Amino acid sequence: MTLPRTVRLQDKFDAFSDHFSPKVIGELNGQHVKAVKFSGEFIWHSHEHEDELFLVTRGTLLMRFRDGEQRVGVGEFIIVPRGVEHLPVALDDEVWVLLFEPATTVNTGTAGGERTVTDLERL
Amino acid sequence: MTLPRTVRLQDKFDAFSDHFSPKVIGELNGQHVKAVKFSGEFIWHSHEHEDELFLVTRGTLLMRFRDGEQRVGVGEFIIVPRGVEHLPVALDDEVWVLLFEPATTVNTGTAGGERTVTDLERL
């Protein structure tokens, strides 16, 4: 078999520069591990069938909900359950986030629109 | 609904001191996020149905396989596919690891034995 290999997060984040476009950097149990860079504000959306984990590795993310908000800094994560509307906002010029979510997850959820990424790049 | 809350990894790791005893710190899509502290060498084992992700947040982990090994340092992860025998070894006095794996995962896999943790603590 192929020996499992260590993945260095910094290498993966160094390999792309676009924002709000998650890259698949790992796959297990039908779930994806993704690296994404946030800048500014994304869009309000929710996912019908997927819970989403956001683990911040650079900068601070503000996760807005319809009835509150949470700051997520380096070394912190937040889990957004399916069905919960959320709006990720980068509080720094660039915020780096590791996502852990089902392989079926679309970045804009049920909101759709021009910021939807359909062809996920693998790094 | 209850507002999702930010989880600080450091707080979770500060909340326990035993080794090789994973604590559940998050749950999503039938998967667990666990915090575990490794010291010394664990045991050879594999999981029949579960792939496992190890993300290191302190120290360096050596993941031994029957036909090779990989070092995993801070900010790095490795995914061990189901069925692959592995032996985690802490290369520092204490190594802190975040695990992503199905909620069904038992720490010793099919090997069993005295180091099996059956009652997972939630932090």
Task: Characterize the structure shown.
2 copies of one chain form a homodimer. Chain A is mainly beta. Chain A has one domain (24-122): Jelly Rolls (Sandwich). Helix content of chain A is 5%, strand content 42%. Chain A is built from 1 helix and 10 strands. The first copy, chain A, has one helix at 9-14; strands spanning 7-8, 23-28, 31-38, 52-58, 61-65, 68-72, 76-80, 87-90, 95-102, 121-122. In chain A, the strands form 2 sheets. Chain A has a 6-stranded mixed β-sheet. In chain A, strands 6-5-8 form a 3-stranded antiparallel β-sheet, with no helix packed on it. The two termini of chain A are 21 Å apart. Chains A, B: InterPro entries: Cupin_2, PKS_Associated_Protein, RmlC-like_jellyroll, RmlC_Cupin_sf. Chains A, B: GO terms for molecular function: isomerase activity. Chains A, B: Residues 40-98 form the Cupin type-2 domain. Chains A, B: This is Mannose-6-phosphate isomerase. Chains A, B: It holds the Pfam family Cupin_2.
Instruction: Give the helices and strands of chain A as they follow along the chain.
Output: EHEEEEEEEEE
Q: Can you tell me the CATH architecture of chain A?
A: Sandwich
Number of strands of chain A: 10
Which CATH class of chain A? Mainly Beta
The number of helical elements of chain A comes to 1
Quote the beta fraction of chain A.
Answer: 35-45%
Low-confidence stretches of chain A: none
When the domains of chain A are counted, the total is: 1
- CATH H-level name of chain A... which superfamily? Jelly Rolls
C-alpha termini separation of chain A: 21 Å
Protein name (chains A, B): Mannose-6-phosphate isomerase
Domain Cupin type-2 (chains A, B): 40-98
Keywords (chains A, B): Isomerase
GO molecular function (chains A, B): isomerase activity
